[in-house]
Each structure stands twice: as C-alpha cells, then as structure tokens.
Write a structure and sequence with these properties.
single chain; about 120 residues; Rossmann fold; five-stranded parallel sheet
Amino acid sequence: MAQRVLYAEDEEIMRTLVSDQLKEEGYDVRTAADGEEAVEILAKESFDLILLDIKMPRRDGIDVLKFLREKNLRPRVVMLTGVEDVSIAISCVKLGAIDYVTKPFSLEALLECVKRVLAK
C-alpha cells in the first residue's frame, strides 16, 4: 500500500507541481489549499507524512502543528518555508516537525527529503 502524504500549500502552481511529482513516485497524495483545509482533512484521515507550508491563509503551518499535538496525532511533518529563520525552525521542531525545507527548493531535493523522512 502506498504511503499517504498530505501537502498543504497555498500556492496552486506549487501544490499541483509537487503533488503530481509525488504521485509519479508512487505516493498517495492529498492536498490542502490552506491550514484550515489541512485541519479539516486531518480530523478525518491519517497520513504517513505531512508537507506543511508555514505561511498560509486562514491558518498557518504552525497552527496546524499545534492542532496535531493537541489531538495527539504523530505523523511525520516536514515544514516548508520561504523564510530562513532558525528560530522558526526550532519552534517547528519543538512542536513535532522532523525537518524543514526552505523555498525555493528543487523537486529533487524535496523528494530526497520525503524519502529520508519516511525511511525513519
């Protein structure tokens, strides 16, 4: 059975590009256009990995991480951020994220991160 990935990203072009590539790699992918939609999906479904953009409308990635912790859900989480701020990365790790990737990123680098995190 394919590993399940939720990709929460507000930029539609990125969301489509990355989800299509993950599907080509054999992952079962769901997408969310913002943090609120991600929370709605996470309330009903479980995932092996969540790729979570930090800056999104309605609810940001850090709020989604807090939701996961409050509900005692423990999927692997990789944060995606356009900001290279070590304090944000540390906050995300404290809330349960395994890794973070700074934007812009190459699809190859993201896929390597996904494979590495899911192999743990």
